Amino acid sequence: MRTRRPEEKETITSITEGSVDQRQRYQRLLETTNAVPWEVNLRTFRYSYVGPQAVNLLGYPVEDWYKRDFWVRHILPEDREFATSFCRNATQRGDDHNFEYRMVSADGRVVWLHDIVCLGRSRGRVTTLYGFLIDITSIKETEEALRVSEAKYRDLYDHGPDMYSSIDATGKILSCNEMLLKVSGFSADEIISRSVFDLYHPDSRDVARKAYEAFLDSGVVQDVELQITNKQGDRIDVSLNASAVRNEAGAVVGSRSVWRDITKRKKAETELRASEVALRSSRQNLRRLTGRVLTAQEEERRRVARDLHDDFSQRLAGLAIELASLEKNLSEPAPELAAKVGNFQDQLKSLSSDLHTVSHQLHPAILDELGLFSAIESECERVTRIEGLKIDYTSGDAPSSLPKDIAIGIYRVTQEALRNVVTHAQASEIRVSISAVDEGLFLSVEDNGIGFVRSKLQPTSGIGIAGMRERIRHIDGRMSVKSQPGRGTKVEVYVPLEGIQ
Known about the structure:
The protein is an alpha+beta fold. The protein folds into three domains: 20-138, 2-Layer Sandwich (Beta-Lactamase), CATH 3.30.450.20; 160-261, 2-Layer Sandwich (Beta-Lactamase); 364-496, Heat Shock Protein 90 (2-Layer Sandwich), CATH 3.30.565. The protein is built from 15 helices and 15 strands. The chain has helices spanning 6-30, 53-58, 62-65, 70-73, 77-93, 137-159, 178-184, 188-191, 202-218, 263-328, 335-362, 365-369, 372-387, 404-425, 464-474; strands at residues 36-41, 46-50, 97-104, 110-122, 125-135, 163-168, 173-176, 220-229, 235-246, 252-261, 390-395, 429-437, 440-447, 478-483, 489-496. The strands form three sheets. Strands 2-1-5-4-3 form a five-stranded antiparallel sheet, with helices on both faces. Helix 10 (263-328) runs antiparallel to helix 11 (335-362) and helix 10 crosses helix 15. The longest helix is centred in the middle third of the chain and has 66 residues, at 263-328. The chain starts with 5 loop residues before the first helix and ends in a 5-residue tail after the last strand.
């Protein structure tokens, strides 16, 4: 055997020490990464090296990794067949490979791993496997969350209540959801690549094109009502909303369009309009009927009042004259008979007064003879005389003439307002004013009584507030009632008098 020279021994020692030092540097570098470096001896099928990061990865001591079948035993059972077969087949083919699978950690967690495998050869044979294990659990969880989210939004896109489509800048349909296919009756092949304007009913196409032209400038379409035509030719009312898809230069290259089926809403609106027309017609008919009833009622009151005044009052006056004559022509003094005659005369006067009051309430003759303002003043004086209430009455210049229905309507409302004060208000003063203002008549009846809360108002005698309003509405006027507990009540009426001097 040849003896090595001293300089050869020194060179070999230097090379050996350098290789060991370099390997130690590589090992320290690998052990500072998050990936777990490993090496497997194919002769023993055991790990011959595992980086210390393995403890953080799965929680098992590094020593456990060196035990027989550690890798196989800790693969998730559902992945075990795939992982072992994939690695074995790739190794037999002599291919470096990488694959993903799951292992079970010491605390029972499932950890997703990406395994990068390289083949180590000696004299042309594969003797070792080495590589890195990388924890990809968070990536997999993110992917799964994204998949679930995409599935959810895809389900919402396809099965939501609205029709969705993607359209290019020329108006060609690129994609659509299931709802558009369902509502239109077309298949995907019949809609995709078709012009969106073909879907619109001919009556809506001009509106659709104008909306599209405005969309190219603004990038937005909001609540444009159109009609599309389904495969059977039926019209479907829709509301269109769209937002622009732009390229990097900001130019509109397409749109995301949404049609909402508003057929039921439009039908309901049509029916509502028809109902409103019918209701207005019914109200007009009711107002005309109410006017006729009020007119007939007033005419009947006027007739009865006239009969009471012209007939019954005259007959009572005749009886009074006869009683006076009887008392005067008694043949001899008869105190008892004279007393009876006097009693009859008193009763006759009272009856005549009551008859006059009833006649006045039915229809005051002064309203026809002297007009509305004098009639209201007379009514105020009557209430003051009978009830003892102080009434401050003021009036402006009266129109020279008033339509009969306006005069009687305002008079009856004044009469009812005063009656309500007497009956309910517990007032000591009333202010009544009437004047011609702003081409109309303005009436105000205000008291200093106890007032009331409108929500607690109970039905009252007479025509009541509802009847007062109906009378004023019949003559095209307006009425308001303002009241607060302890602060009295004010009734205000305005009736237009266009063309009346």
